Every structure is written in C-alpha cells, then in structure tokens.
Amino acid sequence: MQSRDATQAVMNRILGSLSKSAEPAGGVRMPEERMPFRIKLVQNENELERAVSIRHAAYARHVPTFAATLTRPEAYDFEDGAVILLAESKLDGSPIGTMRIKTNRHAPLGLEKSVKLPEWLEYTSIAEATRLGIATGRMGMVVKTMLFKAFYQYCLQTGIEWMVITARAPLDRQYEDLLLEDVYPDGGFIPMRHIGDMPHRVMALDVINARAKWTEARHPLLGFMCDTLHPDIDLSRTEDYTLRAPRLPVAQPATMLM
Fold first, then answer.
1. Domain range spanning residue 64?
2. Does 235 map to a domain?
3. Whole-number Å distance between alpha carbons of 14 and 66
C-alpha cells in the first residue's frame, strides 16, 4: 500500500502533466488546469442515473451488502438544499465520481439524527457531503480531490460557513490531511445511528478561513484549491433548476455513508 506522501506525489505528477498557463485580462498570469473529465451538477434523470451507477459501484467494493440499497436514487437526493455532483469522462461520458451536498438551510443535516451539533455550529450555515463514490483507476485520487474542490467552491458561492463530513477509517486521514478538524475532539470515532452504528469521525472546515489556514500551514494543495482555474468544474444551473423525483423507483432514506 502506498503511503500518503507517495500517493500525493503520484497525484502531483498527474496534475503537473495536465496543467498549463492562462493569461487573463490585466496581464496577470494564473495557472489553469484542464482535466480529462468534467464535474457538474446533476440536473436531469439521465445524469442522476449515471451518478447512482457510480455511487453503487464504489460502495459495492467496500460494503457490498449496503451497496445493494444504492441501486436506485434515494429520497435524500430530492430534498430541498441537496445537490449532486457528477464527474464524467470527456472521452465517453462515463461516470467516474459523484458526491451529494446537503445544506441545513431547509432541514437538519443527516448527521443530526445521530449527534447534537456543538454550540459553535448550531446556528451557522452548514453543508454536509455524503455519498462520495469514485471509479477505480489512476485518476481516482485526482477525481476525489476535484470533487472536494467543487464542494469547497459550492460553499463559497452559496455563502455556506462550514463544510462537514462524517468519515470512517481510513478515509478520515485524507480529510485530516486537508486540515479538517474534529467537531468532537474528545469523541474520536462515534457510532452513527443513521449509519448502522458504524463508527465515524465528524469533521469540519471553516469555509471563509480555509485559505488562510492552508496558507499558514503551507499546504501543498493551496495553489490547487485557491489559485488555480479549473474550467472543468461547472457549478452553474438553469434558472428553474429542481431535481425532481424521476420515473425510476426511489429508495426511502436509508443509512448514509460518506
């Protein structure tokens, strides 16, 4: 198994091979990176089907019994304040990654069924990321990092103050590397009632101060996250955007894994 440093080095080489420079108005050079895939918001039934297919395939590799419940869209997918990210290959349009983002502006977050938010989060705007699914292959780490950047950009664009995730081991280490902190520092891995009592860390990132935090830490992904244009992340949507329940059968809310 590769160490995290080795994995990061591989990802840096991949990103380096894809990068180029752009010359925006004003003569200031800004790095721009084009990827062999795009990330967008799911806005129709066909896109939802592709997101569900990669979601199911990803979970089937790790929790096959639970994955059997993910063959259809979930009621959570259609709740107010929820959007679904879809990463798809430019070559053939195949789905290679997905993530669902749900804010607390219309209803409590899924994790609030298992834990009570601390006072410093209770009256803030929060977005929780769930249903992360990535295809196998050498681009997997890049797709995952791009989805996290899309999550971060979505929060910036919509005025969300805190990004929150629940992560099981060993995925929690990846979010720790991105400087997310424990919401319950003394809690460690907390059994989540809404996730079949599986132990998860609840972790959060202050959206507004994320850049300053990464800068202070001289984080290797600071430039990638904050100072690089990624035109292949498109978070635009139609004026009347609403993802409505499709003709497909919809699964009722079930346990949620990150």
1. 4-19+30-230
2. no
3. 33
